[in-house]
Design brief:
globular
C-alpha cells in the first residue's frame, strides 16, 4: 500500500496535476485503504491543517506586502536605497538585494517580491547597461531573502508544524538573513563587473536626505512589527494585522496618488489568491503527512539513522541535498509539510538544536525557489516580464551558488542561528 500511494503521487505529478491534488490523492488513498478511516476524514484533514491561530498571520502579512506594492510605499523605499548606493560599482544590484530583503520580509511572498521590486528595478538596470541575465538573476535570488529575514511565512509554517515559538524563529533568522543578503551583494557586485554599465552620478546629500524622509514610514514598519513582537506588546499574528493597518495609514497620509480603491482591490484579490493556494497546499500536505506518521515512516527513518555509523554532519548534508532535490520539482510549502514530520524527529535524535534546524530548512527552501526546472521565482520573473526561461535561469546560476555556500555556512556554524539565545 505504501508503494501504491507513492505511485499515485508520482503519476499525478508527471501528468501535470496540481501538487495539492497529488498530495491529497495519495494521502487519501492511505487514509481510506490502509488506515480504514471513513471518507469524511479526508476533508477534515484540510480543516485541521489550517485550524491554527498562528496561520492567521499568513494572509495578513501577504496583504501588507501587496498593499506596499500597489499603494506606493515600496517605490519610495527603493528610491532611497538607489540614491544611497546606486552610483557605486554594482550599486544597482546591491540596491536591489537590500530592497528585496526588506520588502520580502514585509510581504512574506517571494513571487510578490520579485514582481514588485523587479518592476521598479529591471527597466532602470537594463537602461544603465546591466545585462538581462544579471538583472533577472539578482531579482530572482534576492526575492527569496524575505523567507529568512523576519517576519517570515516559512517560519510561521515551520512553527505551526513543530509547535516552536515563531517569535524565537524570527529572532534567530535575523543574523542568517543578513549574512545571506551580504553574500548575494558580493556575488552581485562581482557579476556586475562583466557588464558595461553606466554609473549614475552620485546623488547629492539633499536628494538622499529627501528620499530618506519619504522612505521613513516604510523603513519603520519592520522596526515597529519586530519591536512589538519582541517587546511583548503583541503576538506574531497580531503583528501581521497591525502591519496591514500601518500600511493603510502611511499610504493614505503619504501616498494619496496611489492610495486608490482599484489598487486596494488589486491588493485584496492577490492576497486571496495566494492565501487560497497556500491553504489548499497545507490541506493536501497535512493529509499526506498524517498517513506517513500512521505508517510509521518517521519512526523507521529515525531508528535507521541512529543505528548507522555515519557522522551527524554528513546526515545533515544529505538532508539539505534532499531539500534541494525536492526543490527542483515541488514548491517550498509542500516540501516543508511533506518532509518536516519525517525529518524533524530524526534531527532531534541527532542532538541538533531545533531552531538551528529551522534556519537550515528555510535556507534550503530558499534555494529551491531559484532551482530549475520548477523554481517559483524563476517562473514569476519569466512570466511577468515575458522573458525566455533560459535567460532567467542563466542569470540566476551565480546567485544560486552563493545561496548554497551561505546555507553550508549556516549548517556548519550554528552560532549564527542560536547566538542570541546563549
Amino acid at each position: 500500500m505504501l508503494v501504491v500511494g507513492f505511485f499515485i503521487f508520482i503519476i499525478l505529478l508527471v501528468i501535470g496535476a496540481p501538487i495539492w491534488l497529488a498530495l491529497a490523492m495519495s494521502g487519501g488513498f492511505w487514509v481510506y485503504v490502509q488506515m480504514g478511516l471513513p471518507l469524511v476524514s479526508i476533508p477534515s484533514q484540510f480543516f485541521i491543517a489550517t485550524d491554527a491561530w498562528i496561520l492567521l498571520a499568513v494572509p495578513y502579512f501577504l496583504l501588507a506586502g501587496n498593499l506596499m506594492t500597489y499603494m506606493g510605499p515600496a517605490n519610495k523605499m527603493f528610491t532611497f536605497i538607489k540614491n544611497l548606493v546606486g552610483h557605486l560599482p554594482g550599486g544597482m544590484t546591491a540596491a536591489v538585494v537590500v530592497t528585496a530583503a526588506i520588502f520580502g520580509a514585509l510581504s512574506g511572498s517571494s513571487v510578490a517580491t520579485v514582481v514588485a521590486v523587479g518592476s521598479m528595478a529591471i527597466p532602470q538596470m537594463i537602461k544603465m547597461g546591466y545585462s538581462k541575465e544579471n538583472s533577472y538573476g539578482v531579482i530572482a535570488a534576492s526575492g527569496t531573502l524575505g523567507q529568512m529575514i523576519p517576519p517570515s511565512i516559512f517560519m510561521i509554517l515551520f512553527a505551526a508544524t513543530t509547535q516552536l515559538d515563531p517569535g524565537q524563529l524570527f529572532l534567530a533568522g535575523i543574523a542568517p538573513g543578513v549574512f545571506m543578503a551580504i553574500v548575494l551583494i558580493i556575488v552581485a557586485i562581482v557579476v556586475s563587473f562583466r557588464d558595461k554599465t553606466e554609473r549614475p552620478e552620485k546623488s547629492s546629500f539633499a536628494e538622499i536626505f529627501t528620499s530618506f524622509l519619504h522612505a521613513i514610514p516604510s523603513l519603520l514598519m519592520p522596526v515597529i512589527i519586530l519591536g512589538g513582537i519582541y517587546g511583548g506588546i503583541f503576538t506574531p499574528t497580531e503583528a501581521a494585522a497591525i502591519a496591514v493597518c500601518y500600511v493603510l495609514i502611511i499610504s493614505f497620509l503619504f501616498n494619496r496618488k496611489d492610495c486608490t480603491v482599484p489598487n486596494f482591490k488589486k491588493s485584496l484579490i492577490n492576497t486571496m489568491i495566494t492565501t487560497a493556494v497556500i491553504y489548499i497546499l497545507l490541506g493536501g500536505a497535512k493529509l499526506f503527512s498524517t498517513a506517513m506518521t500512521y505508517l510509521q515512516v518517521p519512526q523507521i527513518l529515525t531508528q535507521f539513522v541512529t543505528n548507522i555509523q555515519v557522522a551527524d554532519w554528513i546526515i545533515m548534508l544529505l538532508i539539505i541535498l534532499l531539500f534541494l532535490f525536492f526543490g527542483m520539482f515541488l514548491d517550498a510549502i509542500p516540501i516543508l509539510y511533506i518532509t518536516l514530520p519525517i525529518l524533524y524527529p530524526v534531527v532531534l535524535s541527532l542532538g541538533y538544536d531545533p531552531i538551528h534546524f529551522a534556519m537550515i530548512t528555510v535556507a534550503s527552501l530558499m534555494i529551491g525557489q531559484i532551482t530549475p526546472p520548477v523554481g517559483s521565482s524563476l517562473y514569476a520573473i519569466s512570466g511577468h516580464f515575458k522573458e525566455n526561461m533560459g535567460v532567467v535561469v542563466r542569470g540566476s546560476y551565480p546567485y544560486l551558488v552563493g545561496l548554497i555556500v551561505a546555507t553550508l555556512v549556516i549548517l556548519y556554524i550554528p552560532w549564527l542561528s542560536i547566538f542570541l539565545f546563549q
